[in-house]
Amino acid sequence: MRGDIALRPPAAQLPAASRIVSWLQDVWVLTRRNLIHVRREPQQLSDVTIQPVIFTLLFVYVFGAALAAKAGGDFKAFLIPGLLVMNLTTSTVGTAIGLSTDLSTGVINRLRTLPMAQTSILVGRSISDLLAAVLCGAFVVVTGLAIGWRPDAGAGSILAGIGIALFFSYALTWFNACIGLGMKSPEAAQGVVFVIMFPLSFVSNIFTPTQGMPGWVGAIANWNPVSAVASACRTLFGAPNPSAAVNAWPMQHPVTAALMWAFAILVVCAPVAGWLYRRKTRN
Amino acid sequence: MKNGSMITAQGLSKSFGEVRALRDVDLDVPAGSILGVLGPNGAGKTTAIRILTTLTVPDTGSAWVAGHDVVNDPSAVRRMIGVTGQDATLDEQLTGRQNLLMVGELSRMKRSDAKRRGAELLEAFELADAGERVLKTYSGGMRRRLDLAASLVARPPVLFLDEPTTGLDPTSRQRMWTVIRTLVSEGTTVLLSTQYLDEADSLADRIVLFDHGRVIAEGTPAELKGSTGSQLVEVTLAAPHAGAAAALAELGTGAVNVSGGGLRLTVPVRNEPGLAVAALRSLDAVGAQVEDIAVHRPTLDDVFGILTGATGPDGAPDTGDAGEGGDAGEAAAEFEEVLL
Known about the structure:
- The complex is a heterodimer.
- Chain A has helices at residues 19-40, 50-71, 75-90, 93-104, 107-112, 120-146, 155-182, 186-202, 215-223, 225-237, 249-252, 254-280.
- Chain A is an all-alpha fold.
- Chain A has one domain.
- In chain A, 49% of the residues are buried.
- Chain B folds into two domains: 5-224, 3-Layer(aba) Sandwich (Rossmann fold); 227-339, 2-Layer Sandwich (Alpha-Beta Plaits), CATH 3.30.70.100.
- In chain B, a hairpin with a 2-residue loop joins strand 1 and strand 2 (19-30).
- Chain B is elongated.
- In chain B, helix 3 (96-106) packs across helix 4 (111-124).
- Chain B has a six-stranded mixed β-sheet with strand order 6-7-8-3-9-10, sandwiched between helices.
- The chains are: A mainly alpha, B alpha/beta.
- At the A-B interface, helix 1 and helix 5 of A face helix 3, helix 4, helix 5 and helix 6 of B.
């Protein structure tokens, strides 16, 4: 260690850059940091790579025929949109765990002493998790195509369906951020999000039409945001969608309902996450 | 805020539930100086630093860093400070170089500037070879150096160093001290917390002593050492002498401590000139043969022990026996001569 560290006046703020540009830069720096983590430990990506492949194969080949008998028609066409939505829903738990882990180390404190935009910690996390969701969706789609799934719709319509599923996943990322920020430890966060995310995925029309469910369970499933997103994807992929016969508003207007749900979750959870972050880091 | 002060705190208090971490603390650090914040674990040092670095807010009181209010204008404060501390760490999964780049970019430096500055600091802190290694693989000393380097990336005029040398080997500590002195000589203002008295003694222009959330003493190292109102006379005899202790007791303000098989006698005395000569005369008068005599001021360890109730800063009980100091005591005395 030498003692000749040059000390010049402190770095000024970027002269011409507006607040938004610096904010975007902060977000990008922190997104990149999360991506470096992933590159360093690729096994933490298994829940958006290996897991979607296993789930897709498992449900199509083990349960597929039995589940789809009720749905009628091509069971791969029925199941793949559902599996896409299920994987994009459950993979968002990574946000809760990752954020909670971040907060349990001293890195956050270091970041908080820097003149960066503090919101970029949360936004950077949500963006790196969105990129993970894109990867997850790609694995489901490619696995589906590999086992003979052929969506019966135009490219634009298919992309719109995938886009809605990703938008919903991004909104859930913020819900998970709230859980991660609200829990005391990464372990606690992990426990809580699984308890929420699995019923959310399964009490839905993803695997079976809701018509076969007991009355109140069916009602919950019909109004479950996940059902709306799965129905929207089925509609846009040209897949059989038994829920279209259900007399519930979200099932009659799945695309609108899916977008509204995603938007509502985002609008509520993002500010709450910001508030929880400030509260958590105040002391 | 006073003129020329880089860090000012007035009446800071902070409680965590029942625990009063900080009670009515005032601090003032003139530009270009080092304030040593000294105290045992849990004395409130880290809480004070957390408030001044915008990591937490005080319950009552105000503080300014480089003229900016830490509560009302934290982002302005963050542009002026560098922080190295136990609870503000770097990213374990990034390399040394990536960490410095991230800190630079988040300090709103241009990427190319941040890169250059990172390389310069890695070089200066002898971490250039480890620059591409992940932080997880760093030793304790390397981490501390990278921590300090990270706090210097944006060239902040004010540095907060929270126990920067805890756990370092003596050589690494000396190197760290050299860097800190260099930074201050170039105009940086430093607030340094430490559990080590010699560190505060060696580096700080002024010292505040924290205990149970309060500032219990304040001053230059020399003032603090003088504040106990006494010096110590330490005599080594050629042979034990029955009348020696009584002869010294006449000069002293406290009890004579006899050790080393009756050969070593220590007595606290008032701060007056000519005491060594007076002691020699008294001993000569009773026929005691003196081999060695020394008058020294108490070390900060002594002061700390007296002010906080006879325990050292690390919680170890103070022996209260200056005569038993042995090599450490002599080293401290020599050190003091260099300092004063």
